[in-house]
Every structure is written in C-alpha cells, then in structure tokens.
Amino acid sequence: MELALNQPAPLLKRLSWFDWLFAAIVTAGALFALSRFGGFMDIYEKAILLAAIPSLAVFGWFWKPFRPLFIVVGAISLFAVSQYQGSLTRMEEAFFLKYLISSQAAIMWMCALFGLATLAYWGGLLARSEFTMKTGSTLTWVAVTMGFIGLMVRWYESYLVGADVGHIPVSNLYEVFVLFCLITAMLYLYYEARYQTRQMGAFVLLVISAAVGFILWYTFDRGAHEIQPLVPALKSWWMKLHVPANFIGYGAFSIAAMLGVAYLLAARGILASRLPRLEVIDDVMYKAIAIGFAFFTIATILGAMWAAEAWGGYWSWDPKETWALIVWLNYAAWLHIRLVKGLRGPMLAWWAVVGLFVTVFAFIGVNMFLSGLHSYGTL
Amino acid sequence: MNTVPHSFGKSLFELLSSMRFAISLLSILAVASIVGTVLKQAEPYNNYIIQFGPFWFQVFEKLGLYDVYHAAWFLLILTFLVVSTSVCIYRNAPNFVREMKSFREHVSEQSLNAFKHRHEAATALPPAALAASAQRYLEGQGYKVKNLPREGGVLLAAKAGSWNRLGYLLAHSAIVMICIGGLMDGNLVFKVQQLLGYKKIETRDIPQSQVPAISRLTPSNPSFRGSVQIPEGSSADVAFLNVADGYLVQDLPFTVALKQFRIEHYTTGQPKSFESDIELFDRSGKKIRAATIAVNHPLIHDGIAIYQASFADGGTRLTLRGWNLFTPTAASFPIEGTVLQSATLTSAAGDYTLEFIDFRPFNIENMGGEIAASGDAMSVLGGSPVSDNRHLRNVGPSFQYKLRDSRGQAREFSNYMLPLELDGRWYMMSGVRESPNEPFRYMRMPLDADGKIDSFMRLRGALLNAGLRPEIAARFARQALPKDAWGTEIEGKLTASAAQVLALFAGGGFQALGGFIETKVPEAEREKAAGTYLRILELAAFEALQVANRQDGLPAPKPDDATGWLVRDTLNSMSDMFVYGAPVYLQLMQYDEVKASGLQLTRSPGKNVVYFGSLLLTLGVFFMLYVRERRVWLRIKPGHALLAMSSAKHTIDFEKEFTQHARALDTLVQ
Predict the structure, then answer these.
(1) Which residues from chain B sit within 8 angstroms of residue A330, using beta carbons?
(2) Could you tell me if residue B306 is inside a domain?
C-alpha cells in the first residue's frame, strides 16, 4: 500500500544504469584530462577538476537531460581535437573542422540555431502549434550542444596558438557572451521541462538572440573572435570559478526580466490566451531570480576573494565591484518584497524588467563606459 | 481597547526594523554607490578643478564626492544598514528560534478547520493505526513528526524545512559581520584621529624621511593599504597611503629590498608576467626571507600581504649623443642622463633643463595602420580565431624627457633608439608634444646608406651654412644650364635665385618659402613658382651634399634614387625642425636599464571576518531560497481524518505538495 504513496527512495537507489554510466564517463574523462593535461594545471586547477567529477555527476543525476548533452559534447569535442592533429592549419583543411566543429564554425552554428529557435518559438506561440514550439526546443538543444563544442574546441585551439597562450575560454567579452547564451538557454530548458510549458521560450530566446546579435557584430566588426593571450591579472584559477558563477547569475536575471515582459503583456491581455497562467510565469520568474541571486552572491564573493589575491584588497570599490553590489542590492530588495511582503503582480514584473537594465550595465556598460581594474588595460 | 501612545524609542525601533526601511536603505545604498562609479575616484585634485571649475570643485569636495565610499554620509548609510539589520535580527531571532523548535502542537481543531489548505477523509481504521502509517509517510517525505494524544484520537504535528529560518538568521548576521569586517579594514580610526587633530595628511612633495610624525603611521597600525615603488637594488621600509589630495607614510615592521623585476612577454609582445624577486629584512638588518612575487601570487608575511601592483623605470642610465640642430656644422657632443633626474643643457639660445622622465625598453606598435576588420563573412564563418598579430611589432627602446627653457616652459619629447621603417625607408624618430593630453608629432630624420643620421646632419649643416651658399648656388646653376649658357646673364640670375631660395629655406623651411611666394608672386603664378622653387631647392640641396662630403673628405654622393630620397627627406625634416621646439636632438646610444617595481602592501584584519560572513551569507541565502518551511497537521478521530497544511509562501510547489499529501491521506485511510 505504501508503495503507492510515491515515497522518495534514497537517492542512490533511484539511479538508473545510465546514471552510473554517466558518472563513470565523467570520472574517466576527468581522470584522462588530469593525466593528459595535468602538466598545464596548478594544484588549484587540479582540485577544481577533481571537484568537478562529483559536481557534474550529481548535476546529471538531478537534471537528466544533462547526461546526453555532456556525452555528446564530450565525444564530438574529442573528435574535433583528434582532427587537428596538433596543427591549427588543419582548421582550413579538414572538412569537419572547416564547416562544422572548429570553434568558430561551431559557435556560428550556435548563433544560427538560436536564431532559428527564436523563430520557431514565436511561430509556435502565435500559431498555437505545439509541434513548432517543440522544434524550437530541439533547435535550442542543438544550439547549446554546438555552443559547448565551440567553447571546448576553442579551449584546445588556444593551446595550439601557444602553450603559454592557452586558457579556458571565459576570458574576454566574446567568450563570455557565448557562455551567457549557453547558460541562459540551459536554465530555460530546465524550467521548460519542469513546468511542461514551452510558450515562455519565445521570450527567453529573444534575449539570447540579442546576445547572438552582439556576438556577430563583435566578430564581424571588431574581429573579437581572435584568441588573445591572457593579461597577467587574469592568469588565475579563480577565473574558472568566478566567471561561470557570475554568468549563471546574469543568465537567470535575464530570464526573469523576459518573463517579466511576458507577465506584463499577459496581464494586459496581450498574448494572454497563448501564454501560461500568470501564476506560472510569476513562479518561474521568482525561481529564476532566486537561483540568479544565489549564484550572483557566490560569484561576487569569489570575485572578492580573487581581488584579495590579485589587487591586494577584497573590496576596492572598483566600478565593476560597485555595480555588482548594486545588482545584488537590487535583487535583494526584490526578494525582500516578494518573500517577506508576499507581494506579487505587475510591480515585481516591472522591477525584474528594470533589473535587466541594471544587470546589463553591470555586465557590459561598466566595461564600455567606466574605467577601472576590470578594464585590464594596465597591469 | 485603549491605544497606548508609542514612545519615541519604540517608534524608532519600529521604523528601524520595518521592511519598508530596509528596502529603502538597500535602494538608497545602490543609488549612492552609483555616484562613485560615474565620477572617477581619488584622482589628483587638480584634475577635478580642471573638470568642474573652482566653484563646483569645492561643492563636490564638501560632499566628499572624490572619495564617496569613505565619505561620512556614505558611512552613515552603511551604519543604518547595519543597525537596521541588527534590530531586525534582534526582533525576529527569539521568535524564529521558537518557531524552528515548535511543532505548533497547541493548534485547535477549530483553527485547523479554518485553514485554506485542508483535506478531510473518512476512515474505517483505528486512529492509532492510521497515525502510525501517516507518521511513516510524513517522515518519508522529510518531515519531523510529533504524535500527540488528543481527545478521542490523535494529532500529528509535523514540520519540515525549519532551516529556512536558520537561513534568515545566517544571512542577516552575515551582512552585519561583513560590514563590521569591512569597517575593521577601513580608515575609520585614521578619520577619527584626523578629526581630533592627532594626524594630518601630508601634501608636500618631500623625501619621506622628512615627513613629520603627524603624517606617519606606526608599524602597529592594525589596518592599511599602501604602495611603494622600489628600484632594483634598492629597498624601502615605508609604504605610502593616498588620502584625499595628499598622502600618509606608513612605517613597516620590516624592510623590503628588490633584487630584480622581470617582465616576460608573449611572442606577440603582450606582457605575460610581472615578477619581483624581493627580500625582507628585519629592523636590525637581518634577512628574514626571500621570495618571488607575481600578479595573483602575493607574499604574506607577518599579517602583511605584499602584492605586485605596477612597475616603472627606476633610474635607467642613458648614454646620449646631442646634435645641435641649428649650427652650420654636423658635430655632435656626448651627454649622460639618468631617468627621474635632470641635467642642464647650455646653448646659444640660453640654458635648458633636461628632465628625464621615463625609459621604455619595449614599444609594441601597431605598424599595420588600422586593425583589419574581418569584413569577409567566409573568413569568419569557416574561419580562424587565430589572431593575426603581424601588424604588431616591437620597435625597440625609447626614452622620454622634458626640455624646460629658462622661462619654465617645457616640451615633452619621446625618442626611439632604433630606426623605424616607413614607406620602405628608414628614419630616426623623435616625437614632441606641448602637453600630456596631445599625441606626439614626429620629426623623422632619414638614414644614409650606412644606416646613420650623419649624412642628414651633414647636409643640414651645409644648408644652414651661409658661407657655402654662393658656391652651392653656382654649382647648381652650372649643373642646370647647358654649357653654352655658362657665363651668361642667365647663369647669374639662376645663381641669385638659388642663393635666395637656399637662404629663405635656411631661415624657416618650406613655411618661409611659402610665405615669400605669397607676398611676392601674383596669385595666378604661385603654383608654378612653388614648383620651380622646390625643384631649385632639391637640386641645390644635392649640390650642397656634394660640397659637404667634399669638405669632410668623403666620396661624392651617387646620383641615385637613394640619394634623391635622402635629400628630399632631409628637406622635409629640416622644415619640421623649425617647429620642433628644441635646439638639440638627443640620440640614444646606450642604456643601462634599472627597473622599479610597484608593490602594494596591505594589512587587513577584517578579511577573515568578511570571509566567514560570506560563507554564512551563502549558506543563509541557499537555506532561505531553497528550503521551504511547511507544516502539516493530521487530526485523527475515530472514522475521520483532517489534514491541514500551512507555509509562509504559497507557491506552486506548495500547492503541488498539498495535493500529494491529500492524495496520500486518501490512500492511507483505506
């Protein structure tokens, strides 16, 4: 009788053979990387790699679709690496590299696929076609796959440029924009499955498309896709933790803002019949801000600890630091209102939308308009 | 009911602990923080005066806008935040702890009936049996359950997610802790001392040993963040703290000596690492330890962290050759200099002070002009992220100096040691500017076949030499005219014209020639006249080179393209000479580089407090956001069960869970 009550079994008993296979692959992959590339890592980077094993395994157990994504990205990236045969000129010669899976080709595919996914989500939303929206989801998944392949291969390429040049591709605005697209898309895909609704994709993909637009402009107009060596200040293992944590925050806040737009439109009756119930939009918006806030807190703390090691103080009131604080305060206030006051509705939706502007300024505006330690112009 | 008038204290307590006050504070703090990011902080005060003018400069200074984050009003906001948060904790903590422990077992059946989330079921099971299975179920769901006998049955009181409230306590105490840690590392103690007149900021530019005790901080100072520049082979036992428009001297408990400072470069020329080999000595001169510090790899000794922060020239010794630009000879003189020091230069036009500012062993210049935009779509799509750095080139050492005349007017110069290739020819480059905001304008002096500027200097001397002018003009006329015209009146005229052109040019370059043409030649004929004059000048200059070579016992110049360009470039460069603004050109022959490393030294006792607060904050945030506090009551009477559920936040997840529990009850009662 009690079996029917759906009691949660202990975690380890709930795991399938695929979960264990996945964990084994993650472990084998990490250990392979450690033995093969350990010479390029310092003790902290090795520790990060080892800590990534349980983190990725548990994350895959928690969010099942991550397992095939990880395996496919890993397999194709390894294939791409094998195609290089240790020489960058192969990028122009090998068919797969040239048209599909060299870092730049893969990232351009990611851009194109995100664009198509946006169209599909909107087409599906307007035509009330579940199938079209499902196509949007699939396209988004493929885009995420291509994007991750692009970053993985870029990581490898950077070492081909020069053994001392190589670094994780989260070091400049171009690379972190790709990362932003990927994290935002993954967060959205998680909520999409969790809430069994695809309509919100139309709005979330808009902000990803905007980032894609920036990537394209940055590539074609500024040649920003070139791999540049790291300035001394960035040569630290902290980068591997600080930057991704930050972008979980940025990505989540962006999703919240786009859902804020959806909420406000639906509340005025625009697209209301096509979008999920207001409570659902509101709930996802809250969840996005919650996860964003948690990771942004971690990222800011990690940033402070890095700053203590690189600049001689954990807090220097540098414009980037200060704007991180402003973003943090903004969402702290949002959560206070929501959690303590229990307030819901258009006011918080508006606030989430405005929050995006604050976040975007902290993300790009500071680098563009304000000078400071984060500009990396000088030592 | 009678209303009790609130006392002031009580009202203040209410205000400080109110949510509205907290949210206002968060918003005010955010807005106030923006100020310091828009206005560049801690610049030299002169920059602000230039930017805002004297009136607004003073207003902004009074408002503390040049150091917003240490201004009294900003600290006041932070203080309010700490007080408000503390009061909030004080007010809520006892209640929260009670709530965390409590099962709310005294809830009456009547109030359970009033719950919005309640579910009733009829059952044939005896209350004790149902209670037992329900308790197992709830415990399986992560609830803590209390089984309480109640009139005619049982009350199960269950709770889950109490850590949510713990999260509140952790996160809010963390904020207080972080602010206190920050305060410990702030300059509050100094501010109080300054206010009371115990300490004063030093604003004079004097050697640190002469800075009086009132502007010095003792080694026991618990917290500071200062910097110091040490040349290679030297040491320092103080650090400088920049405060407002002056500085303080922080005496260190040890002496830092710099053995060597190194910069490594990538193959593309960008800097790869900055490292300093340092040694620490105690006050008695005993060596304590040696270490190499680099960016991201500080040395921590005795609670003081030493960071690689910057670098500069530490007094490179320069061996120079001075060329007088306006003498009719090509002689040069030797001169020695040291960066950061001055020398006197005596010339016919008066004495000059030479202030050596800087030396740069590397200059990475973009020689490709514009950075090539990847306009070609295919090159990007199929393309390579490998950067094309071919246009970046190290053009070698350069040194910078100021030449100050007797009236105190100074121009800044930047001379490269090595020649640069421009348009396929090689030049020595010397840049000049009037103020630091301007870009350098370059005078380029052509090299001869030997790769030296001697030919340029020789030709320049000959062209300035009035005594040679008749001979040069005569030679030019002979060369220009066919043999049958020699000795005629035409030759005389041509010689005179050439002499005049040469004299004009020697007096002011092309500008002087142009001025002459504008005043003497009718407008319609100016272009033609200018062409003619230029032609005369070039040919005469070639003759001048012949004469100069012959005088110095050198072989005659070959009448080839190279000589042609040498002559043309010399004329251009001589013309620039008149606006160069200095009577000499200093050519760098040799250098003995001495680098200086900029170190930052900090002592921050609050760091660990801040880090511990950060840990609590992270835990607290996760507990608050991801642990949902829920309570379930199950009142079981013979034949009847009432399930009620409550939570502070009625989210979709809560609704789902309630539905699940209701269904579970329906199953359990059967």
Answers:
(1) 26, 30
(2) yes
Same-domain check for residues B471 and B542: yes
Domain boundary among B77, B98, B119: B98
Q: What is the DSSP letter of B361?
A: S
Q: What is the pLDDT of residues A41-61, one digit of tens each?
A: 999 999 999 999 999 999 999
Distance from CA of B184 to the nearest CA of A (A): 13
Do B155 and B204 belong together in one domain? no
- B 603-632 residues with CB < 8 A to A: 604, 607, 610-611, 614, 617-618, 621-622, 624-626
Q: What is the enclosing helix (H) or strand (E) of B517?
A: helix B489-520
Q: Are residues B502 and B575 in the same domain?
A: yes
Q: Quote the CA–CA distance of A234 and A60 in Å, as a whole number.
A: 30
Total length of chain A: 379
Buried b (16+ CB within 10 A) or exposed e, A248-281: bbbbbbbbbbbbbbbbbbbeeeeeeeebbebebb
Count of the separate structural domains present in chain B:
4
Beta-bridge mates of residue B358: B400
Are B139 and B257 contained in the same domain?
no
- Crossing angle between the packed helical segments A201-222 and A173-195, to the nearest 10 degrees: 170
Inside any domain, residue B369: no
Same domain membership, residue B602 and residue B584: no
ipTM associated with this complex:
0.93
Asked if the Cβ–Cβ distance from A286 to B614 is below 8 Å, we say no
Q: How far is the CA of A117 from the CAs of A151, A201, B215, B287, B483, in angstroms? A: 20, 9, 65, 66, 87
* H helix or E strand, kind and range, residue B641: strand B640-647
Indicate if B263 and B140 belong to the same structural domain: no
Which CATH number fits the domain that encloses residue B149? 3.30.310.10
| Chain centroid offset of residue A271 CA | 28
pLDDT digit string (tens) for B604-645? 999 999 999 999 999 999 999 999 999 999 999 999 999 999
Partner-chain contact B141 A8, CB within 8 Å: yes
The phi and psi torsions of B634 (rounded to 5 degrees) equal -130, 110
For residue A37 the two structure tokens come to 């590339």
Q: Does B38 touch chain A (CB under 8 A)?
A: yes
Burial class from Cβ neighbours inside 10 Å (0-12, 13-18, 19+) for residue B477 reads: buried
C-alpha pair distances (Å), B659 with each of A241, A321, B406:
40, 45, 92
Residue B428 lies in a domain: no
Given an 8 Å threshold on Cβ–Cβ distance, is B380 in contact with A304?
Answer: no
d(CA B102, nearest CA chain A) in Å = 21
Instruction: Kindly state whether residues B254 and B155 are assigned to the same domain.
Output: no
CA–CA min distance A225, chain B (Å) = 5
Q: What is the pLDDT of residues A298-336, one digit of tens each?
A: 999 999 999 999 888 899 888 889 999 999 999 999 998
The answer to whether B622 contacts A335, with C-beta atoms less than 8 Å apart, is no
Tell which wins on pLDDT, A376 or A211. Answer: A211
Residue B352: inside a domain:
no
Helical H runs in B71-126?
Answer: 72-101, 109-113
Q: Are A220 and B372 an interchain contact pair (Cβ–Cβ within 8 Å)?
A: no
- Does residue B632 sit in helix, strand or coil? strand
End-of-domain residue from the set B78, B98, B118:
B98
Same domain, B476 and B539: yes
**Contact flag B664-A5 (C-beta cutoff 8 Å):** yes
Q: Which residues of A fall within a CB distance of 8 Å from B310?
A: 378-379
pLDDT at position B6 is 64
Query: 3-class DSSP state for residue B606?
Result: coil
**Residue A361: which residues within 8 A CB-CB, separation 6 or more?**
A323
Selecting from A6, A154, A235 the residue whose C-beta is nearest the C-beta of B296 gives A235
Q: pLDDT tens, A148-195? A: 999 999 999 999 998 899 999 999 889 999 999 999 999 999 999 999
Residues of the domain holding B235: 198-313+598-610
